[in-house]
């Protein structure tokens, strides 16, 4: 097969590994810098041009679209879909996963366990917003944050009010969430491919920190997940419409709670910790499930 990897940088670990794994299985792998691709959307025959030539003959496309290029990246992916190329994750599902409010609404509608969560922009009654999520301690998050930045633990209602006021001043959308203390500063990353969790790892925050992000000094280790956690991760990916997803779960007293579902999950940590050939499993998934004109959403909805 001829497989495109949409990625800004061929040297990134995940991009390199996907190229290696595809080549090892006899495929032609082409890395396409998402922002450099351009297209004619008004023609009868949808095309993408790259380095002065039309892209042709692709069987599948693996989107590795960073959060900062979601909008343009999804447009390029949608154009591949219109050309009938098989997308590992569909553009609609990726766009959905990048909107935290929309994602959590979808997951809750389908009965997936979530921390009690409120959303707000300029709440006219901050005390009521705090009560709505059962009071302090609570976690406040800015919506566009990543790598744990913009995630604050407020031990008291007074602290929470000040932080909410500060974010209101910055005109930020925020999420106010029940603090899952019993998770003990740890979360579980489940790597889902198709209808399986193919690898899982635990991330533990450094002492004195509640955020387990590796960028915040957290450490990763192997973990055996429960059947309920496995089911939750698979269902969460399915609700989002993602074939490949990193589902982050908190262990609470009342079962697994989904924190977020990532549509371009990093592969370095999980391959290193578990020793699994995640890239190879993704290529095999494409071999088994790929084919022309299979995009379900056709870029709509
Ligand atoms: P980001 O998208 O920046 O990674 P997250 O929502 O994943 O933000 O939060 C960062 C980390 O903070 C999580 O990995 C988790 O360890 C911790 N955390 C987030 N929300 C909660 C919560 N409601 N209860 C307990 N810990 C949380
Ligand atoms: Mg996170």
Automatic annotation (TrEMBL):
Name of the protein described by the UniProt record: Probable alpha-L-glutamate ligase
Species this chain originates from: Pseudomonas spirodelae
Highest taxon, organism lineage: Bacteria
Enzyme class: ligase
A molecular function (GO) term: ligase activity
Repeat found in the keyword field: no
Pfam families named in the record: RimK, Rimk_N
Matches recorded under InterPro entries: ATP-grasp, ATP-grasp_RimK-type, ATP_grasp_subdomain_1, RimK, Rimk_N, Rp_bS6_RimK/Lys_biosynth_LsyX
GO cellular component: ribosome
Protein keywords: ATP-binding, Ligase, Magnesium, Manganese, Metal-binding, Nucleotide-binding, Protein biosynthesis, Ribonucleoprotein, Ribosomal protein
SUPFAM superfamilies: Glutathione synthetase ATP-binding domain-like
Binding residue positions for Mn(2+) 2: 260, 262
Residues reported to bind Mn(2+) 1: 248, 260
Family: Belongs to the RimK family.
Residues that hold Mg(2+) 2 according to the record: 260, 262
Binding site residues for ATP: 141, 178-179, 187, 211-213
The keyword Magnesium appears for this protein: yes
């Amino acid at each position: 097969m001829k497989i495109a990897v949409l990625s800004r940088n061929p040297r990134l670990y995940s991009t390199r590994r996907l190229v290696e794994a595809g080549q090892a299985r006899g495929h032609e792998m082409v890395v396409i810098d998402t922002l450099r691709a351009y297209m004619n959307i008004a023609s009868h025959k949808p095309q993408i041009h790259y380095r002065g030539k039309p892209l042709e003959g692709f069987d599948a496309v693996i989107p590795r679209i960073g959060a900062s290029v979601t909008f343009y990246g999804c447009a390029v992916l949608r154009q591949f879909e219109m050309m009938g190329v098989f997308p590992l994750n569909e553009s609609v599902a990726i766009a959905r996963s990048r909107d935290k409010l929309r994602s959590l609404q979808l997951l809750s509608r389908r009965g997936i366990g979530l921390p009690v969560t409120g959303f707000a922009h300029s709440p006219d009654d901050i005390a009521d917003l705090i009560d709505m999520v059962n009071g302090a301690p609570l976690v406040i998050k800015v919506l566009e944050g990543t790598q744990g930045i913009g995630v604050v633990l407020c031990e008291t209602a007074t602290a929470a009010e000040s932080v909410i006021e500060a974010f209101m001043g910055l005109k930020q959308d925020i999420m106010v969430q029940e603090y899952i203390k019993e998770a003990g500063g740890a979360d579980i990353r489940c790597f889902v491919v198709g209808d399986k969790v193919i690898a899982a790892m635990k991330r533990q925050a450094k002492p004195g920190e509640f955020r387990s992000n590796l960028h915040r000094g957290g450490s990763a280790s192997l973990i055996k997940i429960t059947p309920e956690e496995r089911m939750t991760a698979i269902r969460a990916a399915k609700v989002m419409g993602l074939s490949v997803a990193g589902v982050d779960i908190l262990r609470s007293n009342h079962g697994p709670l989904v924190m977020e579902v990532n549509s371009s999950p990093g592969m370095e940590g999980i391959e290193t910790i578990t020793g699994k050939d995640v890239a190879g499993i993704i290529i095999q998934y494409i071999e088994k499930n790929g084919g022309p004109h299979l995009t379900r959403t056709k870029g709509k909805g």
